Amino acid sequence: MSPRKFFLVWVNDTPTTRMRHPSYNAACEEANRLARLNSGKKVYVLEAIDYRWVEEAPLTYKAL
């Protein structure tokens, strides 16, 4: 199954974000909610646009 686009909401000056939102609109609703709870702080809506990974190298050995 291929990865799907998702969105994150992050409140500035907080350590992490927890939820993945499946749509921009869902993320915006959450950003609005968090902005009301965190007056004076910027709340960002972030879009995942691509990803990276490293394939595990195959195990090799030689007899002595």
Largest sheet geometry: 2 strands, antiparallel
Question: How far is the N terminus from the C terminus?
Answer: 43 Å
String of helices and strands: EHE
Radius of gyration: 19 Å
Can you give keywords for this protein?
alpha+beta; 64 residues
Structure overview:
The chain has 1 helix and 2 strands, in the order βαβ. By secondary structure, the chain is of the alpha+beta class. It has a domain at 7-47. The chain has a two-stranded antiparallel ribbon with strand order 1-2. The longest helix is centred in the middle third of the chain and has 14 residues, at 24-37. It is elongated, with a radius of gyration of 19 Å. The N and C termini lie far apart (43 Å).
Outline of the structure:
22% of the residues lie in helices and 16% in strands. The chain is of the alpha+beta class and 64 residues long.
Question: Which helices and strands, and how do they pair?
Answer:
Blueprint: E1 7-11, H1 24-37, E2 43-47
Antiparallel strand pairs: 1-2
